[in-house]
Amino acid sequence: MIKLLIGTLTLFLSVSTILNAQSNAVVPIPTQAQLDWQNAEMVAVFHYDLHVFDGLKYNQAKNRITPIADYNIFNPEKLDTDQWIKSIKDAGFKIAILTATHETGFALYQSDVNPYSLKAVKWRDGKGDIVRDFVNSCRKYGIKPGIYIGIRWNSFYGVYDFKVSGDDAFAANRQAHYNRVCEGMVEELMSRYGDLAMVWFDGGAHGPEKGGADILPIVKKHQKNIIFYHNTQRADIRWGGSESGTVPYPSWGTFPFPYSHSTNQDVIFKNNFQLLKEGDPNGEYYMPAMSDAPLRGYNGRHEWFWEPNDEAGIYPLENLMKMYSNSVGHNTSLIMGLTPNADGLLPEPDVQRLKEWGDEINRRFSNPLASTSGAGKAFNLKLEKGQKVNQIVLMEDITQGERVRKFSLEGKTKEGWQTIFEGSSIGHKFIHSFEPQVYSKVRLRVLASKGEAQVQSMEVFYVE
Predict the structure, then answer these.
(1) What pLDDT, in 10s, does the model give residues 226-268?
(2) Which of 15, 90, 227, 438 is the most buried (most CB within 10 A)?
(3) Is residue 57 a contact partner of residue 307, using CB atoms and an 8 Å limit?
(4) CA 388: distance to chain centroid?
(5) Is omega for the bond preceding 230 within 30 degrees of 0, making it cis?
(6) In a 3-state reduction of DSSP, which class is residue 266?
(7) CA proximity to 50, closest of 27, 30, 67
(8) In the structure, what pLDDT confidence band is assigned to residue 16 with cuts at 50, 70 and 90?
């Protein structure tokens, strides 16, 4: 009886502690997977599919409805996933995602449920598994692997926007079969390759309530600490509202719904995706935005898949640095689309630009003139004898949530204190660049916050 009372009291105290912790929480708190996601900052998504090998310009609208005439065009004779991953490692990426299936429906692994997979081709005698190669290369270079699964469109199965055409028994049977195939692929991909950082369902994933595959329970069964993106039941991150690789300022890490753009579309689509881009500072759910763009998105191009003679579409370094500041520096993680060529290699011009990008990020952000951290309302930095400053980087400790609601950055000149910037959101990271100015002191003043502000770091730089 005494043991029972002690056990009951212990349970009561544990529950009370949880409730007390919840009642004292001032803002939504990210999960460990969301923390890992935002700490990664730069994420690569490798797009690879049958039409890389057709020698034609990628036509998304056509490819969604037109089966590939001969899937044995798939023949990456020099495939080297180590080369892919080393290239992003050199650029400072922390997570990599592979399109295990895309709009053709062709699967880049040994599927037992989808006959339209690497089992069907002559390449490597039908025994290749690029997902396996990719995951192994990620782990070799210390990159967290993720998988992208396209089930919304499938030209092989004749599926468009999740659905097979028709409303008769034949169509119903085909839909049920396709749903089982989708569930089977998710089971294979979530269970065979170890812990994954992310699963990304292209264009979302209809749940059974909309006649689609029931994939969320499968993911939850096999991957306890994963970014799930997304369906009508759950989204751990949200799209940033464009494929420019940027979001406007501010972009809060919180959102009013437990899913992103699968539902509530009258609100989501309003004002050119304003809610997706900006988030909601009073949102009840932690759901940071992502910024995505293809590396070959310059000069009128916007190419997620490799095409011959398209090197002029690679973003210049200056554009990539602006993209970095307006994505990572606006509280989002940047997803950069990369595409290996028909040989199975990331093209050398792309590799070189990634290396230049990583080097430039390190040059600009590795050597602060001064830094500080802590909790409170005021953070001061003294610069010996006055120094030129043209860049400030702020980070909140988002393990405690996004608390800052209004702040001011100020610098002291011979004429006194001057305002450098007035803002609202800091979140994981805020980067502000400006014309050089000589300051003897720089300070951050937190003018409004939900709970005590927790500043992980404040750094000032002079970048030539």
Answers:
(1) 999 999 889 999 999 999 999 999 999 999 999 877 778 889 8
(2) 227
(3) yes
(4) 35
(5) yes
(6) helix
(7) 67
(8) very low
